[in-house]
């Protein structure tokens, strides 16, 4: 029983740390990214639980639009139409 709790705690802490480290700063709430990373490591597993519960944005913003690729003038159909 103690082994299951220990493994679950370790997995949750690793998940929260990696998720926080890879997440964009604009999608993290309440604390800066470095603050959450310290909290997750120093207060494991309670810091990980806090991060998952209140620290990350829930995706309310929706998917991000893809970045527009910059085309050279000879490959840009809009530019070529204007000629």
From TrEMBL:
| Gene Ontology cellular component list | plasma membrane
Subcellular location, record wording: Cell membrane
Can you give the residue ranges of the Cardiolipin synthase N-terminal domain?
11-56
Where in this protein does the record put region Disordered?
A: 58-83
Bilayer topology? Multi-pass membrane protein
Q: Where does the chain cross the membrane?
A: 34-54
What is the official name of this protein in its record? Unannotated protein
Which organism does this record belong to?
Answer: freshwater metagenome
